[in-house]
Amino acid sequence: MNKGLKLAAAVLCAAVLGACGKGDGGAAAGDGAITVGFSQVGAESEWRTANTRSVKEALAAPEFNLKFSDAQQKQENQIKALRSFIAQGVDVIAFSPVVESGWETVLREAKAAGIPVVLTDRAVAVSDESLYATFIGSDFVEEGRKAARWLIEDSEGQAGPVRVVELQGTVGSAPANDRMKGFKEILGQDPRFTIVRSQSGDFTRAKGKEVMEAFLKAEGPGGIDVLFAHNDDMAIGAIQAIEAAGLKPGEDIRIVSIDGVRGAFEAMKAGKLNATIECNPLLGPQLADLVRDVHAGRPVPRRVEVEEGVFTREQAAAELPRRKY
Ligand code: GZL
After folding, report:
1. Are 247 and 196 members of one domain?
2. What pLDDT, on the 0 to 100 scale, is given for residue 32?
3. Domain at 128, CATH number
4. Cα-flanking dihedrals φ and ψ of residue 129, to 5°?
5. Can you give the residue range of the structural domain that contains 73?
6. How far is Cα 281 from Cα 259, in angstroms, rounded to an integer?
7. Atom of ligand 1 nearest to the CA of 122
8. If you count Cβ atoms within 10 Å of the first and of the last residue's Cβ in the chain, which end, N or C, has fewer?
9. Is 138 in the pocket of ligand 1 (CB under 6 A)?
10. Is 175 in the pocket of ligand 1 (CB under 6 A)?
């Protein structure tokens, strides 16, 4: 790349990322370190905060030079960041795609530039699987199945009908699509259950509260038996709405959600949340291993999944001190 292009790339980088050069706490660029461009979804939830902390801690090691970008949950910001990483000639790109579609073009640009891509947390829907080297994250469909299995088990002896409302994650995102798919696959096997309303709360507490208020208004008191929330943050927001409506969360309306963040364990300990399905955000160390292998040209698995459990309010008090996020 000639001097003029290098200068242009540096200016572009500064404009898009606001802080180039040394990156986020890693070693200085050009010292043999692996330069990694990481585009994060945003800072929308407790889960994301823990995930960002894990990635930054793992890639702060001297062997890495991390360039980190927060997309504020906007795909256009992620695409800009990926293009900036390509212009800077980073060694590896890693990112958590905010939604599943719309990545073919920029991933082809990365491939043309010879920059391998590691997907973390969320997946992309592309026709050409060679556009990324590997994926590390959770099985979101299984997380949805686990939530439904817990609900069926917790409803043993109940005749029904059991009216369920669903707070979905970000529209078009892999976790929202797959958690809904898994939940419906299992719940659909039991005729007692009906999902009476579904709407996106965008994985945030504020939107979760707002949508739950609308559900309560539409269904009226006693019209909702269960809330399934695609993440704990929306469930915590919904708990505020349920209490404001004079109802007891965890009792009048049972709640099952996903992530297993500290806030969920505190809500379960208070009896306001019934169960959370763990979705492990602490992917940093495994991501660092994959980046090393991909950079060195060593073979890597196409998909690396993390182990996750199911936690109920009966276990919350004992488990809370052990939680790492
Ligand atoms: C799941 C992750 C989701 C979490 C939400 O791996 O992508 O995004 O469930 C987060 O809390 O916002």
Report:
1. yes
2. 86
3. 3.40.50.2300
4. -65, -15
5. 31-138+281-306
6. 8
7. 7
8. N
9. yes
10. yes
pLDDT of residue 30: 53
Per-residue model confidence (pLDDT) at position 23: 44
Return the pLDDT at 315.
93
Question: Is 305 in contact with 137 (CB distance < 8 Å)?
Answer: yes
Same domain, 270 and 288: no
Cβ-count burial 51-80 (b if 16+ within 10 Å, e if not)? bbebbbebbbbeebbbbbbbbebebebbbb
**Residue nearest (by alpha carbon) to ligand 1 atom 3:** 175
Residues 95 and 156 in one domain: no
152 CA distance to ligand 1 middle (Å)? 24
**Sorting pLDDT into bands at 50, 70 and 90, what band is 306?**
confident
pLDDT digits (tens, 9 = 90+) for 115-141: 999 999 999 999 999 999 999 999 999
- Check if 272 has its Cβ closer than 6 Å to any atom of ligand 1: no
- CB distance 67 to ligand 1 below 6 Å: no
Together in a domain, 77 and 168 = no
